[in-house]
Amino acid sequence: MSALTSTKRNRSISMKKRSQKEYIVIGLGRFGTSIAKQLEANGCTVLAIDRNEQKIRQIAEYVTLAMCLDVSDEEALEEIGGRNFDGAIISIGHSLDASVLATIWAKEQGIGQIIAKAYDEMQGKILTKIGADKIVYPEKELGVQLANDLAFSNLFDAIELSSEYSIAEILTLTDWIGKDLREIKLREKYGVNAIAIKRGGTIIVNPPADAPTKKDDIFFLLGTNATLKKIAGISTSRRN
């Protein structure tokens, strides 16, 4: 087993202050690498593991500790120990065997939260049965997000809450200008709720019902995806 310690944070995992959360990320593809870097940037202590030495060199300066080892090497994993970790992210490539071994190890170590990456539902079911607490499907979720971005291309931005509901930023419709929320009747006429209005550089949360709407107001609307897309279409025709 070979190991490379981060030049950015020259300290071992055992030296971590317990006020910080500690994570182990196994598998440093694009998904695992981005998670490891962001966790460290958020103030967490991160141990990053991969069997590819080049990937270890590339991430070493961004995490607390980076180690090059193969998860099929049980003795190497035992040397690491895992009982102090708050969570494990299993982000191994297409090797189901390696993902299974890493998940079993994390479960046996008593790690609080085990998040595993899967490429399909069958792999996800297997990893769940052997101890993963949460399964993520990066490719599938990225595809869904891209499809939603394309479908909501008329919106300034949209936050998907579920497969049916979102919060969207929509420019004031022509018919709304000069009217207050009671006159616009968002809930009755459109089936949406205004949770905030952006006016210039100010965000008005829970906007008062008697405040007149201005031309360049941007509404934060909560509603079904279908309804929001319909309103966005009207808003776009105004901008064009």
Would you summarize the structure shown here?
This protein is of the alpha/beta class.
Output the keywords.
240 residues, five-stranded antiparallel beta sheet, single chain, Alpha-Beta Plaits, 9 helices, alpha/beta, Rossmann fold, elongated, seven-stranded mixed beta sheet, disordered N terminus, 12 strands
SSE blueprint and pairings:
Blueprint: E1 2-5, E2 22-26, H1 30-41, E3 45-50, H2 53-59, E4 65-68, H3 74-80, E5 87-90, H4 96-108, E6 113-117, H5 121-129, E7 134-136, H6 138-151, E8 157-160, E9 165-171, H7 181-184, H8 186-190, E10 193-199, E11 202-205, E12 218-224, H9 225-239
Parallel strand pairs: 2-3, 2-5, 3-4, 5-6, 6-7
Antiparallel strand pairs: 1-4, 8-9, 9-12, 10-11, 10-12
Task: Give an overview of the whole structure.
With 240 residues, the chain is of the alpha/beta class. It folds into two domains: 2-139, Rossmann fold (3-Layer(aba) Sandwich), CATH 3.40.50; 148-239, 2-Layer Sandwich (Alpha-Beta Plaits). Helices cover 36% and strands 25% of the residues. The protein has helices spanning 30-41, 53-59, 74-80, 96-108, 121-129, 138-151, 181-184, 186-190, 225-239; strands at residues 2-5, 22-26, 45-50, 65-68, 87-90, 113-117, 134-136, 157-160, 165-171, 193-199, 202-205, 218-224. The strands form two sheets. A seven-stranded mixed β-sheet has the order 1-4-3-2-5-6-7, with helices on both faces. A five-stranded antiparallel β-sheet has the order 8-9-12-10-11, with helices on one face. The longest helix is centred in the last third of the chain and has 15 residues, at 225-239. It is elongated. Mean pLDDT is 82; it is low at 1-8 and 10-18.
